[in-house]
Specification:
There is one protein chain. By secondary structure, the protein is α+β, with helices and mostly antiparallel strands. The chain is about 40% helix and about 15% strand. A six-stranded mixed beta sheet has the order 1-5-6-4-3-2, sandwiched between helices. The protein has a two-stranded antiparallel sheet with strand order 7-10. The C terminus is likely disordered. Bound molecules: adenosine-5'-triphosphate. The site of adenosine-5'-triphosphate has 24 residues, from strand 2, strand 3 and strand 4. Adenosine-5'-triphosphate (ATP) binds next to strand 2, strand 3 and strand 4. InterPro entries: G-type_lectin_kinases/EP1-like, Kinase-like_dom_sf, Prot_kinase_dom, Protein_kinase_ATP_BS, Ser/Thr_kinase_AS. Belongs to the protein kinase superfamily. It holds the Pfam family Pkinase. It comes from Camelina sativa (False flax).
């Protein structure tokens, strides 16, 4: 634009100078004054020409430089974003980017205890799951260090965190941006649809697929527990946090509750967090939690995959018509002792006639080892993989006298509509003191019950 203006001004000036020469020639004839004016005019015209030539050359060079810088900058940006991806550095997204990606947070794909999850597509075409974290009270620094820890974890059976968006003001939500996993979570593939509660998608995973999922999840947890710089406890292992990719391979998600612990620390004390039905007994005891608490939750998930039912469910007593809580691990324990494991397998799988009783027994035994009441009796996840992949023989687990039936699982208000799953967040950790008048608070007033056959 500037160049065009300068060129027009130069052309007008040259034209004006030529007009001046012609006018001088007409009025002054070939006098001395005419030659003087003509000389000055011609010098000015030459000066304007020179100016135009120099200016155009300068502009051309400048434009060349600019375009070189732009393309170099673009290359640098591409390289930087590539390196970020390789290094797993999370991207900081603007709220507008996420609004655009999710079409204004329109396509809700799930809702959990800590927020809602929306499907989205980023500018580069990659599909993402955007989790809006609601009611989060963490400070910005704590949030960022958690994001960095999650993003630094890279394993094919762990969901990838692409980035995050910080809260712009105190009451605005934060977002986590994950890779999108197409087949949603394991729960809709192992639990049959209930009554009139409709859900979209899902079906019945075959035995082989379930067995493969068991191995995938074990590998993800073994990596978190044993192969990361700091040991990472998941603390909320449950079917809703196990996603299935296009080939029905498991991808573990939701490190929202994860705890990083130093390698030399074997146990940590923390507030009770996690989900009812999957919490290990030690959450309520004073000796703290460890990676073995994840092993316990994993064992419960194994049993749920085998049985196609929740570990705790309400069933109707025929005689009275009343509902009572049924604890599936107790039933499994009994059937295992009676050598009748096929009776506890998901009926839909039994009908396919594709079951190998020996493999079922192996998975049941591994699950029962994982839910041993004493954490030291449970295998670690590396041992679980060895057992599942057949490199280590699986012995029959001991018959526990007492299992603390997940103290947080039973709740008198539960009408069963939650399917036995409820999130427990930040319940202050119980300080169990051996005092004479000590009573368990109402949240855990229920059951310590025998698991051995009655
Ligand atoms: N990366 C993802 N790709 C595809 N679907 C996802 C992804 N992450 C979550 N979802 C879907 O969103 C649902 C809710 O996820 P979210 O992690 O918020 O909830 P949750 O695990 O059920 O609850 P909580 O946060 O209380 O543990 C999941 O069950 C799953 O169906």
């Amino acid at each position: 634009m500037e160049d065009k203006k300068a060129n027009i001004i130069a052309a007008i000036s040259i034209l004006a100078l030529v007009v001046v020469i012609i006018a001088a020639r007409v009025s002054l004839k070939l006098s001395k004054t005419f030659y003087l004016i003509a000389g000055v005019d011609i010098s000015l015209i030459l000066a304007v020409f020179c100016f135009l030539i120099i200016r155009n050359r300068y502009n051309r060079e400048r434009n060349l430089l600019v375009s070189r810088f732009v393309s170099e900058g673009r290359e640098l940006r591409t390289e930087y974003s590539f390196l970020r991806k390789v290094a797993g550095v999370p991207t900081k997204f603007k709220l507008e980017d996420l609004e655009e990606a999710t079409d204004g947070f329109r396509s809700l794909i799930g809702k959990g205890g800590s927020g809602s999850v929306f499907k989205g597509v980023l500018k580069d075409g990659s599909q993402v799951a955007v989790k809006r974290i609601e009611g989060e009270e963490k400070g910005e620094r704590e949030f960022r260090s958690e994001v960095a820890a999650i993003a630094s974890v890279q394993h094919k059976n762990l969901v990838r965190l692409y980035g995050y968006s910080s809260a712009v003001s105190a009451n605005r939500p934060r977002f986590l941006v994950y890779e999108y996993i197409v087949n949603s979570s394991l729960d809709i593939w192992i639990f049959p649809e209930k009554g009139n509660r409709r859900r979209s998608g899902g079906g019945c995973l075959s035995w082989n697929q379930r067995y493969q999922v068991a191995i995938d999840v074990a590998k993800a947890l073994a990596y978190l527990h044993h192969d990361c710089r700091s040991k990472i406890l998941h603390l909320d292992v449950k079917p809703e946090n196990i996603l299935l990719d296009g080939s029905y391979r498991a991808v573990v998600t939701d490190f929202g509750l994860s705890k990083l612990i130093a390698r030399d620390e074997s146990k940590v004390l923390t507030d009770i967090r996690g989900t009812r039905g999957y919490l290990a007994p030690e959450w309520l005891l004073e000796h703290g939690i460890s990676e073995k608490s994840d092993v316990y939750s994993y064992g419960i998930v194994l049993l749920e995959m085998i049985g196609g039912r929740r570990s705790i469910s309400r069933v109707e007593v025929k005689e009275t018509g009343k509902k009572k809580l049924e604890y599936f691990p107790r039933i499994v324990n009994q059937k295992m002792r009676e050598r009748k494991v096929m009776e506890i397998v998901d009926q839909r799988l039994v009908e396919t006639n594709e079951l190998d009783e020996e493999e079922v027994m192996k998975l049941v035994c591994v699950a029962m080892w994982c839910i041993q009441e004493k954490s030291r009796n449970r295998p670690d996840m590396v041992m679980v993989i060895e057992m599942l992949e057949g490199r280590v023989m699986v012995n029959e687990p001991p018959d526990s006298d007492v299992v603390v039936v997940d103290l947080l699982a039973a709740d008198d208000d539960d009408d069963g509509s939650s399917g036995g799953v409820r999130r427990v967040i930040n319940v202050p950790r119980l300080q169990i003191q051996r005092e004479r008048n000590f009573r368990l608070p109402s949240i855990c007033s229920s059951i310590i019950s025998p698991i051995s056959p009655r």
